[in-house]
Amino acid sequence: MINAIFLGNLTADAKVRDTKGDYKAISFSLGINEKRQNGNDASTFINCTYWSKSNKIAQYLTKGKKILVVADWFDVTEKDGKTYTNFRVRDIKFADSAKKSDEPTPKANEPTPKANDLLDNDDNDGLPF
């Protein structure tokens, strides 16, 4: 298995799909910008899926947020014969350094979510397939 670590910005809000089992598939795409030596910028887009019994984290995976993901690389061959690369996310860390002015501030009586509550990492026993 090939492991990868990516740091990038979400290109859109995460999408949650229900599956036949207890798991939710939370899909998102990361945009990674790179400055080349010749002065040109290059962008790479990474398709990711995070499997979890909870979809709590999806509400925080919004367009433009900077995140770091640890993922396993795998290829999927569709019925039409095309092969796509996807990354099965094992861990997500939020990497934004400061709040943006357009983000709503939590109300005083709302508890701040803890990282462990969001990631719900009790599902490390395998995937539903």
Characterise the protein shown here.
- Keywords: DNA-binding.
- Residues 119-129 have a biased composition (Acidic residues).
- The protein has 129 residues and is mainly beta.
- It has one domain: Nucleic acid-binding proteins (OB fold (Dihydrolipoamide Acetyltransferase, E2P)), CATH 2.40.50.140.
- The chain is 4% helix and 47% strand.
- The chain has one helix and six strands; from the N terminus they run E-E-E-E-E-E-H.
- Strands 1-3-4-6-5 form a five-stranded mixed β-barrel.
- A hairpin with a 5-residue loop joins strand 5 and strand 6 (83-94).
- The model has no long low-confidence stretch (mean pLDDT 83).
